[in-house]
Amino acid sequence: MRKEALRRAFPLKGGAKNASVPEPLSPSISIPLAFRFMLLLAFAMLSLALIFVQLLRLSVTHKQDSDLEKGISLVAQTLRGGGADELAFLELPYYITYTVYESSSKNVLATNDSLLPLLDSERANNYFEKNFYTDSDLNIRFQTKKIDFEGQKLIIECAIDIANDSAAQMLHLLPYLALVALLPVLFISFVLSYLISRQTIASFKKLRSDYDREKEFTSNVSHELKTPISIIYGHANLLKRWGKDDKKQLDESIAAILHETENMNSIVTTLLDMSRIENGKLKVETSRFFVTNFFAKLKEEFKITRPDVAFEIKDEEFLEIETDEQKLHQIFTVVLSNSVKFAGENCRITLEAKIGGNGRIELSSRDNGRGFSENELPHVFERFYKGDSSHDRNVSGSGLGLAIAKVLAKALEAEIFAENAENGGAVIKLVFTDKKNPPRNEDGFPAGSE
To answer: What is the pLDDT of residues 96-141, one digit of tens each?
Structure first.
């Protein structure tokens, strides 16, 4: 039961895929989103504009009806007070016309507009007649009131010429003004929504990329740990069955368990170191030292374990650098270990220090190995990436070396690059951009100083 559960948790077949760039999302949809937002905003603004125009129309109509009632009341009061002749001196707003006529005979008693048609409606209404005038149409709002005057049935008609009413004119032009004002607002909203949506999509892509990376990281950790766990589990079973009676089996199993335990401890320790570095908890202690001496120390260390490796040191300007020597040593230990591992027999390594562009200090390591393939170059600094040897258990390592080298380089305020040499072989270059490392001469003074 336990063995089956372990198999399900750590299957022996297959393995984690090579680290790769997260699968890209669908093409950018910033413009369609911005266009949709613009249409939505346009619809909202047009709806609000229509509601506003309708409310304004009701307000204007209410005012017109109030003016008509006041006009009728004033005409009736003047008529009763002084008769039809007194209406000639009646003062009304310029846009209001009136007519007083007999209800039965339609005989006009008084008017200030002889062309006004005789209409009858005790409620305010609109009246329109096309080509009523020789040069224009008749468009009025009118209202009438029936009164008794000296035994006669009279009708007082008041009308407002909508064409000459400033409020009505404004109401007529308002939709066009709103449309003109809407165009720049829509353009600005399109630009703003495009910028916002693009930034939002970029943030979403970053979150998606982080999620995919963490998912892949978990898968790779499982892949790296499942093999030593399976081996330890297998040897533990062998010890349980035959280890007490078979000394050879006992020694082999204990050695295998210790070896795989060390591998697991190395992976976990490396991951913890990377976590501390990325969280800014790693302290950087700087000191000033000569690069030639630093390279010579590396050479002597590797000569102890690999005397067959040929080293060449190039530092024509005898550069001095200020950084954390221990962490720089850790970076180059990873780089040189990879060169020794992949270059094989007759490995030759060139350590070089020189002044690059803009006076930056460049430290590099070049070997005579196979170099990187085009597919490998974009991923060499990714966690658990092992290139074409990702499934070859004869090539030891967790694929974390260059990943932690990159994180350490960032902590040292440097950039790290991987490339292929012109004549073959891998090149790892470390470029210090910190201004506290100006080129110096043999006397320790900045290069070019007297």
So the answer is: 899 999 998 999 999 998 888 999 888 999 999 888 888 888 889 9
Here the tokens at position 291 are 């690069």
At residue 419's C-alpha, the angle toward residues 418 and 425, to 5°, is 115
- φ, ψ for residue 143, nearest 5 deg: -160, 145
Q: Which residues contact 32 (CB under 8 A, 6 or more apart)?
A: none
Q: What is the pLDDT of residue 73?
A: 93
Contacts of 343 (CB under 8 A, 6+ apart): 349, 367, 368, 369, 370, 425
d(CA 5, CA 11) in angstroms, rounded, equals 10
- CA geometry: angle at 262 spanning 261 and 264, to 5°? 65
Residues 6 or more apart whose Cβ sits within 8 Å of residue 299: 311, 313, 351
- 386-413 residue pLDDT tens: 665 443 434 455 567 788 888 888 888 8
SS3 138: strand
Rg (CA), the chain: 46
Cα gap 75→88, rounded to integer Å? 10
Q: List beta partners, residue 157.
A: 99, 144
Over residues 250-269, mean pLDDT: 78
Q: Which of 242, 448, 409, 274 is nearest to 331 (CA)?
A: 409
- Nearest-10 crossing angle of helices 247-278, 401-411: 30
CB atoms within 10 A of CB 55: 10
Percent of the chain with pLDDT over 70: 74
DSSP string for 302-360: HHHH-TT-EEEEE-TT--EEEE-HHHHHHHHHHHHHHHHHHH-TT-EEEEEEEE-GGG-
